[in-house]
Task: inverse folding
């Protein structure tokens, strides 16, 4: 086999009978194009997926590489399933979203495999770790938006997880995988501890991730290494129901089912200081975290909600129909509904409102930090103020003028609040 042969073709032979991602959810109804928030990226009419460069940068992806991949996709003249959307090239071939991002992941895999021993082993290990982690992030992005019936995306996730394990093997921290039983099904979690490789194992405070609907649990290493580990705080990650290692679960109004079950079993993990567990809810994950704050306050030290989605999106039909098509497709996929109308979707969503569930009618009993972004349609200031607590509630409002700076501020403010909480 020629040395310069595209390694992504070795992983998946070019094939043209795979259903294209944007055609997997059959949803009847109107198409809207109102962006939910600057947090959610650039809502362009000529892309099916939301292009969220800054969020990808925050995860650790090199933006020049991302631009290169997006350019290859945009320049493709191959057949599209929807001619108006650049990222809908049919089949696993050049120009296809999954193909191109996975090809970029393989480039970083090659860099990782070329790491050579030298007099400075720590530097080599750092370089290898970064290369494997970048490969994982590109493979993860290849599988976005993580539809369960997307065969190519599921294969890309396999590579993302494989690369992440390699990154962990070259990491300076002790990181371990743990399996928990939820409704007689196994759910895989990853515990990132702040302990260095040669440190004596001990229990550490832990942030328990409640991710949104558009992230895998392996997308948050940068947040852990830059903001939590320096504080001596770990990160416990798990995939949201219907995504990644939790894809065997449909999303339901009991959004916190997986996290709740893990919290009930948390004492089986000796590396976790179970008196110092802080929930971190991002976007839809804020729904999960807030729900847990009301249902299991005795097991939670505090909650951080970043632009949480709690009520309005689930009950406001006008908001729902003005969301980009991919938003509604993602929700339908998470519910396990591959054929759905806008009216059916609205009927399903109203049960997800924490206000409708009656939880927000009373204060919870854990400290809460809410982070609000100016101009966020899906998580307005009024929405955030629905959360009350008998303990301290802090609010951080961030301007949307410089999202890159705001993302850093959000992470830094979260770390500062955690440090004060566990002292």
Result:
């Amino acid at each position: 086999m020629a040395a310069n042969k595209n390694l992504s073709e070795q992983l998946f032979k070019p094939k043209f009978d795979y259903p294209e991602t944007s055609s997997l959810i059959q949803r009847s109804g109107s198409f809207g194009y109102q962006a939910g928030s600057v947090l959610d990226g650039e809502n362009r009419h000529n892309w099916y997926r939301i292009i969220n460069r800054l969020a990808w940068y925050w995860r650790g992806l090199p933006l020049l590489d991302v631009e290169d991949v997006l350019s290859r996709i945009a320049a493709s003249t191959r057949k599209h399933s929807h001619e108006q959307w650049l990222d809908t090239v049919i089949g696993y071939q050049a120009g296809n979203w999954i193909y191109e991002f996975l090809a970029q992941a393989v480039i970083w895999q090659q860099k990782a495999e070329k790491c050579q021993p030298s007099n400075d082993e720590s530097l080599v290990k750092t370089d290898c770790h970064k290369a494997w982690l970048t490969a994982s992030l590109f493979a993860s992005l290849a599988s976005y938006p993580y539809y369960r019936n997307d065969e190519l995306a599921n294969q890309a996730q396999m590579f993302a997880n494989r690369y992440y394990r390699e990154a962990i093997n070259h990491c300076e921290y002790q990181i371990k995988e743990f399996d928990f039983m939820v409704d007689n099904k196994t759910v895989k979690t990853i515990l990132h501890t702040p302990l260095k490789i040669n440190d004596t194992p001990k229990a550490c405070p832990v942030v328990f991730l409640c991710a949104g609907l558009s992230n895998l649990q392996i997308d948050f290493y940068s947040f852990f290494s830059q903001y939590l580990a320096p504080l001596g705080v770990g990160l416990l990650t798990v995939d949201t129901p219907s995504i990644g290692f939790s894809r065997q679960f449909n999303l339901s109004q009991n959004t916190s089912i997986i996290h709740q079950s893990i919290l009930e079993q948390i004492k089986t993990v000796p590396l976790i200081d179970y008196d110092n567990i802080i929930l971190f809810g991002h976007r839809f994950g804020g729904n999960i975290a807030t729900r847990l704050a009301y249902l299991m306050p005795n097991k939670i030290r505090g909650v951080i909600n970043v632009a949480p989605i709690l009520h309005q999106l689930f009950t406001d039909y006008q908001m729902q129909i003005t969301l980009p098509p991919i938003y509604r497709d993602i929700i339908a996929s998470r519910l396990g509904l591959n054929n759905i109308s806008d009216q059916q979707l609205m009927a399903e969503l109203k049960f997800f409102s924490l206000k409708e569930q009656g939880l927000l009618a009373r204060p919870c009993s854990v400290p809460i930090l809410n982070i609000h972004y100016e101009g966020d349609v899906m998580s307005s200031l009024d929405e955030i103020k629905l959360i009350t607590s008998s303990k301290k509630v802090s609010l951080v409002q961030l301007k949307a003028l410089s999202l890159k700076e705001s993302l850093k501020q959000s992470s830094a403010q979260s770390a500062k609040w955690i440090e004060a909480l566990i002292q």
